[in-house]
Amino acid sequence: MKQRVGSQERAHPLSYWPKLFREIPVARYALVLFVTALTWVGARRTEGYTSGPILCPFRLITGHQCPFCGTTRSFGALVQGDISGSIAYNPSGILLSLVILFWMISPAKFRAVRVRIAQFWWRISEPTRWMLLALMIALVWGYALARW
Which InterPro entries does UniProt cross-reference here (predicted)? Predict the structure, then answer.
């Protein structure tokens, strides 16, 4: 399935999905519900997501959590319905869950949002890009330092 954009021919954004999920939105929603139910059942049956070996190299070296430590536990707590626990582990787990859900429900819209962000990113000047990147890194590490 090809799509013509200007003088270029590109693959349709949903061409990697099986035909059933491309053409019938109900099937896509059923897939989302199935994956959600499977995740919920798996999370209910597994109590060990809060314990186990430390996998983060930053935490192994320094003994302190990096900005992304706790995201898996946050996602597990969110699936079990513990929103306050999810926020306590790491608020980025909720953001990650929303992004994954949006991507599964509407991959074409997700791609369109990504394209708009990329267009905005390349429209701004290079010094502004570096300043935004530095600001994002500072915010993430500021959050990590606040958790210490």
Answer: DUF2752
- Please give the residue that has the higher pLDDT: either 21 or 53: 53
Residue 60's CB is within 10 A of a number of other CB atoms, namely: 10
For the record, the structure tokens of 33 come out as 């519900």
Residue type, 126: E
Express as a percent the part of the chain with pLDDT over 70: 71
Is 80 exceeded by the pLDDT of residue 130? yes
CA atoms within 13 A on the CB side of 30: 7
Name the domain count of the chain: 1
| CA neighbours closer than 13 Å in the CB half-sphere of residue 64 | 10
Contact 64, 148 (CB under 8 A): yes
d(CA 23, CA 26): 9
Number of neighbouring beta carbons within 10 Å of residue 144 = 17
Owning domain of residue 19: 2-147
Give the closest residue to 45 by CA, choosing from 76, 73, 70, 75: 76
